[in-house]
Each structure stands twice: as C-alpha cells, then as structure tokens.
Amino acid sequence: MKIRFTPVAAAIGLAAGMLFSTGALAADTIKIAIAGPFTGALTQYGTMVKEGVDTAIEQINAAGGVLGKQLEAVTIDDGCEPKQGPVVANRVVNDEINYVVGHVCSGATIAATNVYNNEGVVMVTPSATSPAVTDGKNYDMIFRTIGRDDQQGPAAAKFIIEKIKPQLVAVLHDKQSYGQGIASSVKSELEKAGVKVAMFEGINAGDSDYSAVITKLKSSGADFVYYGGYHPEMGLLLRQGAEQGVQAKFMGPEGVGNPDINAIAGGSVEGMLVTLPADFTKDPSNAAIVKAFTDKKRDPSGAFQLTAYSATTAIAEAIKGVGEDDPVKVAKYLHANTIATPIGKISWNKQGDLNDFKFDVFTWHKDGSKTVYQ
C-alpha cells in the first residue's frame, strides 16, 4: 500500500518542524468524504447516506469531536456511475482526505476501491452489497457497515421458499454488478431447494418501456417475480405489469426500497416485498439518535441512514482508539476491534466485511410506508 508523501509535503513538514517545536502542522478539522449519487435518478440513496453521516458528525462534534478536533463532511458526487468512482477517489486523495463513507452504489464502489487501498484512505461503504467489492482483493483499507448480496440473496430465497411457496419464479435483473449479482444469488438458492425458475433475464436500466419482458413474464406462467436492481426500473415493472394484467407478486433487494418508487409505480406498489436492513429505529437504545434525526427533519428509517451513521461512528471511534489521525492505523484498529454502533456491536473479517448482519423482509405500501412481513 502506497502512503502519500510527496516532495511538497516533505518541504511543508520540514518548514513546520522549523517553525513549531511540537512538529507537524495539524489540520483544524478531520474531514470525512461522503461519496455517492447526488445527481441523477438515484440521488435519494445519496441523501440517505448524507443524512446519516451529517447526523453522526453533529452528535460527535457536540460531544467534543475527535482528539479535540471537529469532524467535517465533504460531499462528492459520483452519480452512481462506475466510471466516476476512480475520479471521485482521486479527488479524495488529492484533497488529502483520509476517510470516506461511501461509495453508495456497488458499481462505483468497486471502481474506486483500488485507489483508496493503494493510497491509504479508509473507505467504509454503508450500502454497497456486491461481494465483488471485497472478494479476492486482499484490501486492508476497505470496509462495509452493511451485509453482502450473498447474505441478502439467501435470506430472500429462504423467505420465498418458506413463506411464499411459489409454483414458478421469474428472476429479472438490470445487468449491473449489484442487480445481476443478487438476482443470480437468489436464483441459485431457489434452484438448490428445487424451486423452478421459469425465466432469468436482464433488462436495460433507464429504459421506459418493459412491455416485451412483461409479455414474456406473462407467458412464463410465473406466479412470483424477483427483481435485482434499483427502484426506477422496479417501479416501471410494477406499473406496466399491472397494466398488462400480471398477477404475480414482486420482490426486490434494498435497492428498490426507496419512497420515490411510489410516484413511479402508483398503487401497483402495494404489497411489494423488499429485503432491507433490520429497522434499527425500533431499538430502544437508539431513541436519542432517532430524535437527533427527527429534530433535523430527517428520516432515520430508510435503508442506509443508520448504516451510514454507524460507518461514521466506526471511523471516529477508531481514530480515538489509535489516538491519532492515521488512516493506516485506523484500518488496523477496525480489523482488530468490535465497535458499538446503532446497528449493533460490529466487527469485520480480514477482507473488511461484517462478521454478522441482519436483513429483514418488509411489505411496501402505496402510502410509502413499510411493515415487517407477518
């Protein structure tokens, strides 16, 4: 892993040593970048993460900050686009920011991780669930505060098998890292259990007409549909499916659990099933944190607000734990310790994935609310 140390930085360090007997010239704040979509169709996911980070930083700063310094959030837009992942990562490096909460979408996250790891920046994603973020990479600096698709996919499949008991299942996906990955996981688990998958097909994200795949869906005879992807496409599949008389129940991962889906799908969203992180707002020990969100008119109950809050907490606690603003030491601390957060006491395995994470199944309603499936 390469540590940033340039001739200019060396000269600055030498000058600081000459001017101040205490040595290095310290920054006034400790910056944490928030990397995610703040433009485009998936901006609400970026907003969820930003609200979580902002609330955590406000709480930490009000309690005195970290090592006597205040935390400062720096928001950087990647549009949820893989090609923007390295661009944002290099900006973080050039701006000498040592910590990142993000990226939000798996594709952009995968594209950015190598830069962070090589340059000694701690990255904690609260939302990127693709196994490819960490698998086989031997990264030291990359972490998550959310489970993986190979945890979420089997959880969804187990639910389908035990609770829904469908005759035929259609599995659709958006051909992207996140969507196709989790759809493949669900398909594999269903087939292992002897559930017949009538069709497995990709759609093009961003299209406005899915009538062709809906026609194939109707012809397949499937009475249950699993879709791997994000809410804009799921919303259209629900609405256009209802218009064509599709009676099958639909289910998707946390990427479809976005209130904006209601405006797209209309009443056809009622009854959609979605796997999401457990609703940590119901934990009585989080009452003060929930109040901190609501006092700022922020919703703590979305998919990623409390996982982002927890990512920020983990970074702050690790800096305190090592006693200095050193991202390499912070990463080692995270690998070696358990940290108390709103999503529980969390710890990481060698590749930066959580040792344990709980996904629940929720029923989505046309008023934008959700309830745990009963």
Automatic annotation (TrEMBL):
Domain Leucine-binding protein, first and last residues per copy: 29-366
Entry's Gene Ontology BP terms: amino acid transport
InterPro entries: Leu-bd, Leu_Ile_Val-bd, Peripla_BP_I
Entry-linked Pfam families: Peripla_BP_6 (PF13458)
UniProt cross-references to SUPFAM superfamilies, sorted A to Z: Periplasmic binding protein-like I
Recorded family membership: Belongs to the leucine-binding protein family.
Protein known as: Leucine ABC transporter subunit substrate-binding protein LivK
